[in-house]
């Protein structure tokens, strides 16, 4: 698997550089995420990988990808065996929040 740093969009800022030893939110609703589902998935996986055990990350996704059950759940299940996730809410802007407990 390639990391978000290896992705074709070299101008995209990484969603996380360090491991978060607290609960946090990953902003995956920028214009580059709207245009690139692979980037959305890669950075969502990176965000979960960089969340310490016992904490959660809120993945805030762009409205362009619809409900996360259509665009993200399968990839989370394939990448991780030991995380739980749930759809928290749809944002007023149309995006969605998925809480992933590590």
From TrEMBL:
One Pfam family recorded for the sequence: rSAM_target_put
Keywords: Plasmid
InterPro entries: rSAM_target_put
Region of interest (Disordered), residue spans: 1-32
Biased composition (Basic and acidic residues): 1-10
NCBIfam families reported in the protein's UniProt record: target_X_rSAM
Protein's recorded name: RSAM target protein, CGCGG family
């Amino acid at each position: 698997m390639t990391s978000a740093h290896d992705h074709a969009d070299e101008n995209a800022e990484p969603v996380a550089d360090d491991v978060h030893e607290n609960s946090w939110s990953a902003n995956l609703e920028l214009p580059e995420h709207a245009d690139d589902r692979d980037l959305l998935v890669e950075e969502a996986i990176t965000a979960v990988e960089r969340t310490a055990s016992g904490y959660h990350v809120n993945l805030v996704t762009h409205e362009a990808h619809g409900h996360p059950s259509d665009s993200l759940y399968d990839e989370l299940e394939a990448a991780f065996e030991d995380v739980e996730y749930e759809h928290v809410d749809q944002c007023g802007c149309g995006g969605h929040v998925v809480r992933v407990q590590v």
